Amino acid sequence: MSSTAGLVIPCKVAWEAGKPLVIEKVEVAPPQAMEVRVKIKYTSLCRTDLYFWEAKGQTPLFPRIFGHEASGIVESVGEGVENLQVGDHVLPVFTGECGDCAHCKSEESNMCDLLRINTDRGVMLSDGKPRFSIKGTPINHFLGTSTFSEYTVVHSGCLAKINRLAPLDKVCILSCGISTGLGATLNVAKPKKGSSVAVFGLGAVGLAAAEGARISGASRIIGIDRNPKRFEEAKKFGVNEFVNPKDHDKPVQEVIAEMTNGGVDRSLECTGNIDAMISAFECVHDGWGVAVLVGVPNKDAVFMTKPINVLNERTLKGTFFGNYKPRTDLPSVVDMYMNKELEVEKFITHRVPFSEINKAFDYMVKGEGLRCIISMEE
Hints:
Layout: E1 8-13, E2 22-28, E3 35-44, H1 47-54, E4 69-77, E5 89-92, H2 102-105, E6 132-134, E7 137-139, E8 151-155, E9 159-161, H3 168-171, H4 177-189, E10 196-200, H5 204-216, E11 220-224, H6 231-234, E12 241-243, H7 252-259, E13 266-269, H8 274-282, E14 290-293, H9 307-311, E15 315-318, H10 326-338, E16 348-353, H11 357-365, E17 371-375
Parallel strand pairs: 10-11, 10-13, 11-12, 13-14, 14-15, 16-17
Antiparallel strand pairs: 1-2, 2-6, 3-4, 3-8, 3-17, 4-5, 5-9, 6-7
Helix pairs in contact: 4-5
């Protein structure tokens, strides 16, 4: 790969909340200690990008380069980076794995102390400065990745080195939402073959959770969503029964309990809605049922249920990024796809060139499709 050090590189910049992204010429500085500069090949739009672009419910940080679900190739590495070299194929991840903290050393956690998600930080850790600028004006980073740029600078602990044979225009979606839902099922809920699983919310993350249930061999996969238009597509992911809470005059957990002779073996809540979280917990069978919370609620939301539901041996768990350690575990998720164990293509419903990135936002705002792949070289 030819050197691009010091060159002016075009990328997308969001100048104002909710306004269309515009093409700007941006200086992308070389990587500093423990950093890597990556040539982004393909990126995708995740709902988190949309949420912060709209700047609803959080402190706006503009101008900013969004994007955190992507694939790329290492262009250059900074001082101290030993696990990556020029030419490696990588997935940038919004959370990281430093390898040294208590969480990274634990087999039970992926919540790195150093590189855990921070939505308010717009700079790099090493010197507290951004690597993006326009004519001397600094441009903020997003989730430590900022993949809506032809080149970006990422901490080496937030890059998963993957199989070079994996198609980057497909596995890019494994760097966030799909792995979150998939891992929530495979790593946390762990349904047994022939078991029953309820999935609350049939967006991309929920369908990834259903895909995990399909891979696990669950015999009944019940999809719960208030939008019946999602039911037909969900069949591709193994969902074989559907419940729309609006069709019933009783709590949906009671409906599911009646359908399953006391409750499902496992449930996954993928919306972040508190009522859905309560339903997901209360719809699992006493004695062995496990409910996993995947969706992110409002920070001030309160979860309430009767203590007897816990005493009756129902288990409530939470998960962050599907309990995957980015550097250690994501390569194996890519290998699952390469070995035809995981079907990725069915999540990809749209493709657009980089110059038409705003179409991806339009698709998501309108609720059309699951994932839109943005080609950086078109």
